[in-house]
Write a structure and sequence with these properties.
Blueprint: E1 3-6, H1 11-15, E2 25-29, H2 32-42, E3 47-54, E4 66-72, E5 76-81, H3 82-85, H4 89-96, E6 101-104, H5 107-115, E7 126-127, H6 128-134, H7 142-150, H8 170-196, E8 199-202, H9 206-215
Parallel strand pairs: 1-8, 2-5, 3-6, 6-7
Antiparallel strand pairs: 3-4, 4-5
C-alpha cells in the first residue's frame, strides 16, 4: 500500500499526532575555536539540516540580529550561538561549502538574517519548499510538512523565547535542534518518495475540512 500524503494538511490532523522529541545529542558552541572543530566534523557528514533563530522584538522599531545557527546531522545538532561568536571564519566556511548536501526550509530568509552579521557567498543549499512542490504538496510550514511526511507534531512553543539569554534552557535547545534535524529527516523521506514513487497524493479542500472539524 502506497503512503498517503496530502496537498494540504488541516490543523485537526496535526493536533492528533504525537509530539516530536529530539533523539540525539545537542552541542552548544560559544567560541570560534569550538566552532572550528565542530565545522570540521560537520563537513565530514553526508547531509546537514540548517535553521536559525532570532530574538523576538515586542516593541516597534526594535530589531535584533540573528542569535543562533542550528546545524544537525542524523543524530547530533550543533547550536552556534552567533550572539557570542559572530560569523566566525569556521562558520563562514560551513555556509560557503559546496561539497556537502545542506538542507533548509525557506532558507533564503535565513540567509538574509545571517548576512546582517557579515558578508559571505552562500554555498549549495537545498530548500525543502522547492522539493515538496515537485510532488504536489502546497503547504510550506515546518509543522505541516513534518506532520504530512513523517507523522509527528512539532511544537513551536519556544519560537518567541529570548534566544540571547545567557544560558539557553533545555526546552529552547530541544526546540532549536528539532527544527534543523527535521530538515534532514524530511529531505531523506522526500528523496525516498521521489526515487520509489511509493506515495499517493490526496487532494483535499482544506477550507471545507476545517469548517467541518469546527462543527464537530
Amino acid at each position: 500500500m502506497k503512503k498517503l500524503i496530502y496537498n494540504k494538511l488541516t490543523k485537526s490532523r496535526i493536533n492528533d499526532l504525537e509530539l516530536v522529541k529530539f533523539p540525539g545529542k545537542i552541542v552548544v558552541v560559544v567560541s570560534g575555536s569550538e566552532a572550528s572543530r565542530c565545522v570540521d566534523y560537520l563537513l565530514s557528514q553526508p547531509v546537514l539540516g540548517f535553521d536559525t533563530e532570532t530574538r523576538p522584538a515586542f516593541q516597534r522599531g526594535v530589531h535584533y540580529k540573528c542569535s543562533l545557527l542550528q546545524v544537525s546531522t542524523d543524530d547530533c545538532c550543533f547550536l552556534f550561538r552567533l550572539n557570542h561568536t559572530g560569523l566566525a571564519p569556521a562558520i563562514v566556511r560551513l555556509l560557503e561549502d559546496t561539497t556537502v548536501t545542506k538542507v533548509g526550509l525557506a532558507w533564503n530568509n535565513d540567509l538574509l538574517s545571517l548576512r546582517q552579521l557579515g558578508e559571505f557567498t552562500p554555498g549549495t543549499f537545498v530548500d525543502l519548499q522547492d522539493m515538496v512542490r515537485e510532488i504536489g504538496i502546497e503547504d510550506q510550514s515546518l509543522v505541516k510538512l513534518y506532520a504530512n511526511l513523517l507523522g509527528g507534531h512539532i511544537s513551536k512553543r519556544e519560537r518567541l523565547s529570548n534566544w540571547e539569554r545567557d544560558i539557553l534552557t533545555d526546552s529552547q535547545k530541544s526546540y532549536a535542534a528539532i527544527d534543523a534535524w527535521a530538515c534532514v529527516k524530511m529531505y531523506r523521506e522526500l528523496c525516498r518518495l521521489k526515487e520509489t514513487g511509493d506515495y499517493e497524493l490526496v487532494v483535499t479542500d482544506q477550507e471545507n475540512e476545517e469548517d467541518n472539524s469546527k462543527e464537530r
